[in-house]
Structure formats: structure tokens, C-alpha cells
Amino acid sequence: MALAAPCGGAAGPCALPMLPVLLLFLPGLAAGPAGMLQPRDTPSRERRELGGLWSFRADLSPGRDAGFVQRWYRRPLRQTGPVIDMPVPASFNDITQDPRLENYIGWVWYEKEVLLPLRWLQGDPAPRLVLRFGSAHYYSIVWVNGVQVVEHEGGHLPFEADISSVVQGSPGSLCRITVALNNTLTPHTLPPGSIQYMADKSRYPKNYFVQNTKFDFFNYAGIHRPVVLYTTPAAYIDDITVTTTSSDSLATVQYQVSVVGSTANSLSLSLRDQEGKVVATGDGPVGELKVLNPNLWWPYLMHENPGYLYSLEVRMQAQLDGALLEDVYTLPVGIRTVHVTSSQFLINGRPFYFHGVNKHEDADIRGKGLDWPLIVKDFNLLRWLGANSFRTSHYPYAEEIMDLCDAYGIAVIDESPGVGIKLPESFGNRSLQHHLAVMEELVRRDKNRPSVVMWSVANEPASELPPAAPYFKTVIAHTKALDPSRPVTFVTDANYALDHGAPYVDVICVNSYFSWYHDPGHLEVIPLQLTAQFENWYKTYQKPIIQSEYGADSVPGLHSDPPMMFSEEYQQAMLREYHSVLDKKRKEYVVGELIWNFADFMTNQGTTRVLGNKKGIFTRQRQPKAAAFVLRDRYWRIANESSCLPPAITSHSLFL
């Protein structure tokens, strides 16, 4: 269908806001922004989720600029014209029967009216009130009672605003939250994209355009994760950073706490085990806690008690305007170490082999919207499968998902939204500055998570281009400066001899699809080509290697013997051919394998995609294909070979 170009291609308030070109960001030299502690209920803090139905309106004006020209944020959205109910969290694309929303590009508007408790508005001093979005794709502008409070670029990380002065200065306790959201992708966004205008008037309507991307998943848009109002005291704990070291008998938890609003009179810390027993205490903003005979955080199937978490309670007291204020925050802490050698990935000093999956935040109707039943189902399937890890392909996942990874012992390669970096202009200074900022946001959010064992800064960039060398050198160095405790990688599909970014990674992560995208239908080429792939990469770089993607599409119920492409049998056969080589190389320097993909997922329409990508070992509705049983047998066999667990745990019959 015809779509009007946003602003007719002109720059202005309705176009995706352009970010200024900045001076090169030197790693480690810039002070990061405020902390981004996950909202939690504590004795000093309250939180309220604002999920449910919001008012929604897509700006269908020819220039997509009516909302700004008419200032829709100045009054209730229903007074500006027709609105519909829109669930939050959810993508808006698949919710209605209106085909214009499915592939809509431009500004959409959300609104929610909330009554605030009077205790949030009163006091001397009154509490601090914060509005936080788990994520909204892609560019967000937020108003409260008609006053702009925050702008944010990026669709997969949280952002927030202190709205205390806005609501405390407004009559009554009504809080009207208005969000303008733009899903346009440009060569300088992350992920990148481009708008293509169709100028041939004999074939396309006036101002017709399409959004082009270089990634293979649907560009869902909307408020995808919870929106939360939370309170803190006027003087509060702003950020906590924790790193751990350990031996069999002693662990050290190093911490740094920042406080905002006043100088703390006292700052005390207590570390409790899962039974609530205090195992270490400390005081002051910087220090370390000593834990005797620690329970280490182990990945699933590496220990009979995986995902062990302590609770670090931080308690602050401060004087502000003559009042004594207290803030309490509790942070889950897992004690574990990560180390990389030339041929091994070590967790707590023991070799760790990634036998896991790549995933997507994707499901029927809700798109990328957070959905608890689906999340719990996926973790049950992961454990049934015997998977000990996944990569957050190709963007950071929801904090709620990461919480369960911490608790269940699922190791995570935490990936930025740097997917589809293919155009030369996406390696320029403007793109680089945004990429550095995104890594700061990602590290700030997930730095304390024991499940995060490695950062990935990108997936399948055009790393054969010469500008990729300084680009990835800078991004990786910056990430290491932000967090020296974890290895850093990016995922490549480039030729080993041409990849300009690989010299800077700690672990080689390589994607390949032999007998699918290369030599389609020829399973017999896999052993030779995959062996050569591993040997060439290792000979060149002497770094451990993860087969970070491999797989084949299969249509559920489509069968063929001998195996033919798109049949369930072909998917099984491809996996077995890859596994025969992986079994040899994992005894040397291959440290992991991640199937593409955990489940079928939606993509843009195209002649090679029939209602999405079908490379899942589960359907989009989470039903197993034949390949799921092949992978399950393999993963449990690998776990049993390397495990010291009791038979009741190592037998996969426990999870039937």
C-alpha cells in the first residue's frame, strides 16, 4: 500500500531527530550518565507498573507531522482525533486489522492517565518520582502533563526521567503520560536502515517510500517492555557496581556505590545467602566483602545448584534540609569468574562449553512485547533441551528475561543492537558515537549480572570493509574500559583473511550456513568446509572459537527421504553433519555452538520467507520439530560427558 513519506523527506520536528556529530569518544575518559538500577520494591521505594490499555494514535498525515504541528501532547490524546486502545507492553503492528499499521513507518502516539497516591506528592522533602520505560522502539519523546521530560534514541534499553517537579507542581494527582514514538531507521541508527523513495510515478503513488534494512527479522515497533513509576527518597542510592573474584574457600565481592542528593551520613552493606544469613558486611561507598566457603554461581548442568544468588542489601542514611532520609536497595549477586585462554573459555576456573541457542523476542500478535507466559515457557524448553546458554541475538533482551538467566544459570552472550551494519556510511563518526553510547547503556544495565559472561558489540557487520578496523577497535576498547571483567566479541560472517575487526575480539564467533546459503542442498560439503573454517580461523588468530550460528529452514510437517531442503529431515541431517565436525574440534579450541534458531520468527515479506524464518527447532508456537530432539540428545550427552552431577540431575529423563 502507499505510504506518505514522513515530512515529505524534509527535516523538522516530525522527522527522526538527528544527533549531532561529536568529537571522537576516547575510551575510559568520559563520565557516564546517572545509574540505571532496576526498579525494585524496598522499605524505602515503591513501584507501580503502568501496563494495560493505553490510548494510541498513528500520525497518518502526509508529512507524519500533525502531532507536532498541532501539539497533541498539550491535551488529552482523545481530544486530538480518533484514538484506539493499544496494549502495553506490545508491538502495535499485529494488534489491529488495519493493514496500514503492519508496516507503518513514522510517528505514533501513546497516552496513559494515572492517578498518583498523595503520599508520592507530599512530604518535606517529598519523594523523588521517576518514570521509566523498559524499552520503546525506536526514538521516543515523552511528556508528562504537557511538559517534555525525556528523549531517547534506541529501541532495546531502558530510559527514565525524574518527574517530581512536574507532578508536584501540577494541580491534583492526575499524571498524563504522552509518548511520541518513531520507528524510522537510518544509516546512523542501531540497527541501521534506510528510507528509499520511489520516484517513478508510473509505478508508485506520490511520496511512496519503503524502509529498507539489512537484517532478517521483522522491525516490530511500540512500547515493548514495562512502563514503571517508582519512588525513591529525595537523597538516594543512584548506582551500584559489583565485581567478584573467588577460590574454593574464599571469595571477594568488590563494590562501588554512588549516592545522589546529599552526602551520606552512613552507608552500610550486608551480603546474605539464600537462607537469609548474613555472610559479610561492609561500609562506605567503596570496598570489598570477604565470603568464606562461597557458593559460586555456576551455569546450568555444570553444578547441582546452578544460578546461586546472594542478596546485597545497601542501606544509606543522609541528612537533607534537616530531615533524616533512609534509602535501601537490594541487588542480586552471583559470585563467579570468567577467563579466556587461547583455546578455552573458563567459568570459575573450569572449561565451559556453550551448548545453546540464538533467540528472538518474537511471538504471535504481541510481536516483541514482553509476555510472561511465553518467557517461562521458553526457559522450560531451554532446560528440557539441555541448553546452558544463549546469545541475545540481535539486541539486548528484557531485564525480566535476564533476571531468569541469573536465577537459572543460563550463560548469556549479551549483544548490542549492532545488526545490519553493512553500508560504508554506517562506519562513520556519527554512527560510532551512537554505538559507543549504546554500549555504555548496555554495560550500565547488565554489568552486575553473573549470567552475562561476554559482550557482543555487533552481528554480521561488513567487517571486510577497511573502516571496520578503527570502528571495532574503538567500540571494543571502549567496552573493555567500561567493564574490564568480561571478554568482548562480535559475530562475523566474513572471510577469515578479510575480517578487519577480528584482531580486537577475545573470542572468535563465526556464523556459517554450509549446504544452505552456500552450496544449497549439498550436505556432503559440510565436513570439508566447516573443518577448513575452524582451522583457518584458529591458525590466523589463536583464539577460542564459537560456532555462533548454523541451521536450516524446515516447514513443520514437511518430510522428505532422502532429505531435501525445507524438510524436517534436511534440518536434522544438516545438524548431524555440523555436529560430527564440532565433536572433533571441541576437543581442541572450539568452545561453543549456538543453533540458529530456538524458534521460528517473523521477518519482512519476501520470496524466500513464507510467514517468517523457519530455522527454529521449535515452531513460533513453541512446538518441537524433529531437530529439537536431535539437539536435545546431543546437549544432554555433552553435559553428561563433562559433568560431575549426580545421576538424578544428569539424566534428561528428569525433564520429560
TrEMBL record:
Localization terms from the record: Lysosome
Enzyme Commission number(s): 3.2.1.31
InterPro entries (UniProt xref): Beta-gal/glucu_dom_sf (IPR036156), Galactose-bd-like_sf (IPR008979), GH (IPR017853), Glyco_hydro_2 (IPR006101), Glyco_hydro_2_AS (IPR023232), Glyco_hydro_2_cat (IPR006103), Glyco_hydro_2_N (IPR006104), Ig-like_fold (IPR013783)
Residue ranges of domain Glycoside hydrolase family 2 immunoglobulin-like beta-sandwich in the record: 235-336
Signal peptide: 1-31
Keyword presence, Metal-binding: no
Pfam families the record matches: Glyco_hydro_2, Glyco_hydro_2_C, Glyco_hydro_2_N
Gene Ontology MF annotations: beta-glucuronidase activity; carbohydrate binding
Family: Belongs to the glycosyl hydrolase 2 family.
UniProt name for this protein: Beta-glucuronidase
